[in-house]
Design brief:
Helices cover 41% and strands 14% of the residues. The chain is globular and about 60 Å long. The strands form two sheets. Strands 1-2-3-4-5-6-7-8 form an eight-stranded mixed β-sheet, sandwiched between helices. A hairpin with a 4-residue loop joins strand 2 (92-101) and strand 3. Helix 1 runs parallel beside helix 4 (72-84), helix 3 (51-57) packs across helix 4 (72-84) and helix 5 packs antiparallel against helix 12 (293-308). The protein has two domains: 4-272, Rossmann fold, CATH 3.40.50; 278-356, no CATH class. The longest helix has 17 residues, at 336-352. It is built from 14 helices and ten strands. The model is unreliable at 357-363 (pLDDT under 50). It is of the alpha/beta class.
């Protein structure tokens, strides 16, 4: 079935004047944000570069192998197709930021697009495989505001200060969470110009955010999409009913954008989640409900204390011999009754949810 690369082959010559910005464009721009663009796209918002010009400068061979995420080769192909596309030819790139701050548990990256239709789009990068990036994901479960969320708000304010253009925000995975969060807490004048917020398999929020008036005001602008096996996108709470996208991948691999199915300028939708993924979601949700904020923090800090002691920056550098002790130490910090709850959840996942990880699922 067709994916976002096929979309650029088939519809890349269709300008925005003929076919306005849509949900597939949002996923493309959110996925492109994963490309390392240091020394290619200006950090300043007052300077910009077109996608074809940026592609001429970009050299994937110079990207450190530790920074080459799972979709690295596909992202390079996406870059090429965007550069060749009539639809995106007039799009300008600016404001590229990529920050990793260990002291603040922050992994943050964002990119601003000035589109041919006169609008602006900010894409926030999801978790990129760094240890600190994954810890920030865990922090979402017990912190009222992470450093990355705060940075996202500041970024949007800087990107659109002094402008009057229509605004869209988006992101894949944690980037979608940042997009929604920044829409709620950015400058009021900027918030009033936000037309759409795209969240692709993005984690939700704590109850105090979901119940807030600010969240409820932005809810009509949120466009949420998840694959048939969604784990990340079902974490924490959300009042936005997501659309379920059909997928060609197996299990957790459905999280990655290139397996999301589409037809013309729309996703192909499913009626419900796969059963095995739903089992994992309920097990994880049950675990979160049993732990207080302090207990979630203790578990997270214990886990990442061991992972950080390996002096490795990315999870793919940490082998199983180092990962298992980290999990055991974090587990040992739990109360006996919580250890029992975690054991039960793991057994249930092993029995009924393995299809979300290892094999095709049955609906």
């Amino acid at each position: 079935m067709a994916n976002i690369l096929d979309y650029l082959d088939w519809r890349g010559d269709v300008p925005f004047s003929a076919d306005p910005f849509n949900e597939i464009d949002g996923l493309i721009l959110s996925q492109f944000c994963y490309v390392p663009l240091e020394d290619v796209v200006p950090e300043s918002f007052s300077e910009s570069i077109s996608i074809p010009e940026a592609y001429k400068i970009y050299d994937p061979e110079k990207v450190d192998k530790k920074r080459r995420i799972i979709t690295f080769e596909q992202d390079n192909m996406l870059f090429r197709k965007l550069a060749e596309s009539r639809r995106y030819r007039g799009t300008l790139l600016s404001g590229y930021v990529c920050m990793v701050e260990h002291s603040e548990d922050m992994q943050f990256s964002a990119l601003t697009y000035s589109l041919p239709d006169g609008s602006g789009f900010v894409a926030f990068r999801g978790t990129d495989g760094t240890v600190v990036g994954w810890k920030e994901d865990f922090n979402l479960s017990f912190m009222q505001q992470t450093a990355g969320q705060q940075q996202a708000v500041c970024y949007v304010d800087k990107a659109f200060s002094g402008t009057d253009i229509p605004i869209r925000l988006g992101g894949h995975s944690k980037g979608g969470n940042f997009a929604i969060y920044s829409s709620m807490f950015c400058d009021e004048n900027i918030r009033g110009r936000i037309k759409e917020i795209y969240a692709y398999d993005a984690p939700g929020f704590r109850d105090e955010i979901i119940d807030s008036d600010t969240y409820k005001k932005m809810l009509p602008y949120i466009r949420s999409y998840i694959p048939q096996v969604s784990i990340v996108g079902m974490l924490l709470g959300s009042s936005c009913e997501p659309k379920i996208v059909k997928n060609t991948a197996i299990g957790l691999s459905q999280h990655f954008s290139y397996s999301w199915e589409l037809r013309r300028n729309r996703f192909m939708l499913a009626d419900k989640l796969k059963k095995s993924g739903d089992v994992i979601n309920k097990a994880i949700s049950g675990l979160l409900e049993e732990f207080s904020d302090i207990e979630r923090q203790i578990f997270t800090d214990s886990l990442f204390e061991v992972l950080n002691s390996t002096d490795k920056d990315t999870l793919k550098e940490i082998n199983k011999l180092r990962l298992y002790p980290a999990l055991i130490k974090a587990y040992s910090k739990l109360r006996p009754e919580q250890q029992a709850i975690m054991k039960g959840a793991i057994k249930k996942i092993a029995k009924d949810g393995t299809g979300a990880i290892f094999k095709p699922q049955q609906t």
